[in-house]
Design goal:
This protein has two helices and 21 strands. The protein starts with a strand and ends with a strand. The chain is elongated. The chain has helices at about 230-240, 275-285; strands at about 5, 10-15, 20-25, 30-35, 40-50, 50-60, 75-80, 85, 95-105, 110-120, 125-135, 135-145, 150-155, 155-165, 170-175, 180-185, 220-230, 250, 265-270, 295-300, 305. By secondary structure, the protein is mainly beta. Strands 17, 18, 19, 20 and 21 form a five-stranded mixed beta sheet that branches.
Length: about 300
């Protein structure tokens, strides 16, 4: 993943996030570069000023184990002559607050990248920020209005990848981050958002045809989901004990493939926003105390869940 070209014709890419490969135009065999000792994953390599190789490194955070994704990232520079890495940024993660980096782009002014910060226990979306590393120092350029990533620069103007319903996946935008202009569809340095979750992949024949996921666009809304239940009957029985809450909607993997695993069922109530989601989660856990540990906030296709009021 994440292929990058140098000005002298070398190609670098990441392999399984565990190592980098670099292929020279004068060689038929790619060189393998392993990450520094304190880095668990390395990705998004890029070249600067011709031959200098940089990458994002995901670092181990004491007390954090078995995370779905990286928890703390920093930028690193690789010195091929010494076969050594140098850490360029000093971001930290404390408690359940995580900090990750995405889509670094080198320019003559320095390296721009996206920093995402959030709390593992929060119900609100994380923050997206544009940063610049120049002259050995990293500084925040600005907060971004929504989820967006760098796709490069054109005539000094930033290009962005933004989830876009009209494209059904990633859209390409140019200009000011507050009001960028759509210039097309496609992903430059980001992974497709419509790709099925590999955790949900099952062998053919294990799921009935009417339970296979129907992947639509990106239109979704916040919801509190309780599950998973092995059968529709078990889910319906649990939903009968909803107390003062409205009757929930029954959902399965076919209706909400990113929220429910194949063959299983769940209950769903929609929330107005992140703040309302936190309040709704508390109400659901109070109404269903025996299932409080099975309730969580997630996103489901728009119009699918029962209103929370």
């Amino acid at each position: 993943t994440h292929p990058a070209w140098s000005s002298d014709g070398r190609l670098s890419w990441a392999v399984d996030l565990s190592r980098l490969k670099v292929l020279s135009p004068r060689s038929t065999k790619a060189r393998t570069i392993f990450p520094p000792a304190d880095v668990e994953a390395v990705f998004s390599p890029f070249f600067a000023s011709g031959d200098r190789l940089f990458a994002v490194g995901a670092e181990h955070v004491p007390g954090i184990v078995a995370t779905e994704d990286d928890f703390l990232d920093n930028l690193w520079r690789y010195d091929s002559a010494r076969d050594a890495w140098t850490k360029l940024t000093s971001f930290v993660a404390r408690g359940d607050t995580w900090s990750v980096l995405r889509t670094p782009v080198w320019t003559t002014h320095g390296t721009y990248f996206i920093r995402i910060r959030g709390s593992a226990g929060a119900t609100r979306p994380p923050s997206f920020q544009l940063w610049l590393l120049a002259s050995g120092k990293a500084r925040k350029v600005r907060d971004l209005p929504r989820e967006m990533y760098l796709a490069g620069f054109r005539n000094g103007m930033p290009l962005w990848n933004v989830p876009d319903a009209r494209c059904g996946d990633w859209g390409l935008f140019a200009g000011n981050a507050d009001r960028p202009e759509r210039i097309g569809c496609g992903a430059v340095m980001v992974d497709p958002v419509a790709r099925p979750d590999p955790d949900l992949q099952v062998r053919a024949g294990n799921v009935d045809a009417d339970e296979r996921p129907q992947h639509g666009g990106l239109s979704s809304e916040l919801a509190v989901v309780v599950g998973d239940f092995p059968t529709r009957h078990r889910a319906r029985e649990a939903g009968h004990r909803h107390g003062e809450l409205p009757s929930p909607t029954l959902i399965n993997h076919a209706k909400a493939p990113l929220a429910v695993r194949p063959g299983w069922w769940a209950l769903a109530w929609t929330a107005d926003d992140a703040t309302g989601g936190a309040d709704l989660l508390a109400r659901v856990r109070a109404a269903l105390p025996g299932l409080s540990e099975k309730a969580w906030i997630t996103s489901i296709p728009k119009g699918l869940g029962a209103p929370s009021r």
